[in-house]
Amino acid sequence: TTWTIALEEGALVARHLMHEPVALEPVVRDLFGGDAWFLDEVRFTRDAAGAVDGLRVSAGRVKNVRFARREER
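RE: above sequence
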């Protein structure tokens, strides 16, 4: 599946074709809380140079599902 994460009007928002936008609230560096049951926790991952290379999602019994960063086409 594909999620689009973008800064919109000063807030980080996750978008998916099948869902309403999900606001992501900062908790600590690289960790955000989502306001949807299926996107409870979003933790951005970084490569050796410190650039964001993906994220891990946790919600309920699902923990650390990895999503790799892909540039927009």
